[in-house]
Amino acid sequence: MKILLVSIILFNLSSYSLAQIEQSTILANRFLIENIFIEIFGKKVRKYTQKYIIPNINVFGGPCDIYEQVRKKDEGVYKLNSSCFENKSNHKASFNTKPNVLRSGYILKMCKSILSDSIIMEDYYKKHNIKKWSNYSSKKLFLIHRDFYPLKKVSKEQEEAIRKLFYQKSHLRWDSIILSYCLSPQWRIL
Fold first, then answer.
1. Which candidate, 96, 166, 154, places its Cα nearest to that of 130?
2. 18, exposed or middle or buried, with CB in 10 Å at 0-12, 13-18, 19+?
3. Which residues of the chain have pLDDT under 70?
4. CA–CA separation, 44 and 132 (whole Å)
């Protein structure tokens, strides 16, 4: 009887803790965020990820990348200036962190820096065949949406809201849509 009672209690406790684990939000860490930005905007965006995302280990999570320690030659490692060697405590960093104001602030700086970089944005527009001053097009919106949400389709409500945003701006119309997507926190949730 005691064993049954203990088993029931342990089952209830473990079920409760599993439910807590399943309900917590897991956010992309600094390495994944950098890779997503590179995938969307190209390798030139790395100068901003290296400034705003990668150095902020406590804000974005992600311990040092052990693959940066691979020895390519007998005399040294692959990337001596990597995060693993700059700060010895990087290996203790959390894999991910909770949402916070600093995280949002760095993402804001990141997105604004990207949008103000004419070379990066020119490449991005060219990739999607968008002219900066062109009119609204659902097809072009879907291309931008797919960059940030590759597995989700744009709902009718979202498209209508984005269309209104597009026509509220007299200039930089596509920039405002890209900024909205970039700042959206949902694409950073795993």
1. 166
2. exposed
3. 1-23, 65-92, 169-171
4. 19
